[in-house]
Write a structure and sequence with these properties.
This protein has eight helices and 16 strands. The protein is α+β, with helices and mostly antiparallel strands. Bound molecules: adenosine-5'-triphosphate (ATP). GO terms for molecular function: ATP binding; kinase activity.
């Protein structure tokens, strides 16, 4: 466990994430860092070459930690710059879903999340790569990826528009074909969706991988196999009650490497950002490759 006091921070702030107004945040950061005598810089994302620019800034200046202020896409972009370094990632959840921060028990209230700056522990978590591109949270192919794509193309953000798109697409969605080879088990057939899970639940709180552990050196491939449309409500119920593993329509493969053949060229996303990887996707685990800032365990409060 590392509880080192940080004195120089970089905040990477996404001004558009989650449809959340962030005008007051800079004042809040100034006042908090002033109180704690912390020097800091703020990098505001533009949506263009942010990862490259954040990496450049990290090469030019030394920071004790980098806080991503935004949703899972912002967290993924900042994490990509920090994997395999000694600099930890902090998260101030201000996106539409904030899935990784929920899986890490980071407070969803902005002020409480900011309190982590002065009081936290640092732990290592696994990350995964898909054809070399990092994922920290959840990726998938199929129905949810289609919803993510349509959501990202739409003009409104926030959880309401995501749920609306999902409802509109559900009745007409047809399962797609996949071939999956892993170091533990293989699969070939159709699936409604195929999730590659480092973590547990989507930002919507739908828990696709209830048994997943973020630092066990493994990831899971969670399949929802074809099901009658009428079974959808039961599957949804299990997703929201942490019991999807008990559905007869699901299958979970726990492994350390996999090759996924996306035979119908279905859409996919990585940590909530649409991605295009071609038919063959190589997935590998990078055990304990990212340091993250977490709340103190309750017994140490
Ligand atoms: N200034 C900007 N203008 C337009 N788009 C931006 C800007 N800064 C970042 N982006 C885009 O924002 C997306 C990342 O958003 P992020 O995932 O953090 O929030 P979200 O989608 O609202 O939340 P979540 O992923 O939790 O659902 C990326 O696609 C990135 O390119």
């Amino acid at each position: 466990m590392d509880t080192t006091r940080h004195t120089k921070l970089l905040f990477v702030l996404n001004p558009i994430s989650g449809d959340v107004e962030k005008d007051d945040l800079e004042e809040e950061i100034a006042s908090l860092c002033g109180e704690l005598k912390i020097k800091y810089d703020i990098y505001k994302t533009t949506g263009e070459e942010d990862e490259k620019k954040v990496k450049q800034q990290l090469e030019e200046k030394k920071y004790d930690a980098v806080y991503a202020i935004g949703g899972d896409g912002t967290v993924n972009m900042v994490a990509a710059a920090l994997i395999d370094t000694s600099t930890p990632l902090g998260i101030i959840p201000l996106g539409s879903g904030n899935g990784l921060s929920k899986d890490l028990n980071i407070p969803q209230d902005t002020e409480e999340a900011f309190e982590l700056i002065g009081r936290h522990i640092v732990r290592n978590i696994d990350t995964i790569t898909l054809n070399g591109q990092p994922s920290i949270h959840l990726c998938d192919f199929g129905f949810n990826a289609l919803v993510v794509k349509l959501f990202s193309e739409g003009e409104t953000r926030g959880p309401g528009s995501y749920a609306w798109i999902a409802m509109q697409e559900y009745l007409s969605y047809e399962p797609k074909r996949y071939k999956i080879e892993t170091d533990t088990e293989n699969f070939e057939g159709e699936a409604f969706m195929v999730t590659v899970a480092n973590a547990n639940a989507f930002g919507s709180n739908a828990n696709i991988n209830p048994e997943g552990i973020l630092n066990d050196g493994k990831f899971e491939i969670c399949l929802i196999e074809p099901f009658p449309k009428a079974a959808g409500i039961g599957i949804l119920y299990k997703l929201y009650t942490d019991s999807i593993d008990s559905s007869v329509y699901t299958r979970t493969i726990s492994c350390t490497r996999a090759t996924i053949y996306n035979l119908d060229g279905e859409v996919m996303h990585i940590d909530g950002e649409p991605a295009n990887m071609g038919e063959m996707v190589e997935v590998a685990i990078k055990p304990r490759s990212l340091k993250v800032i977490l709340p103190l365990p309750e017994d140490e409060e």
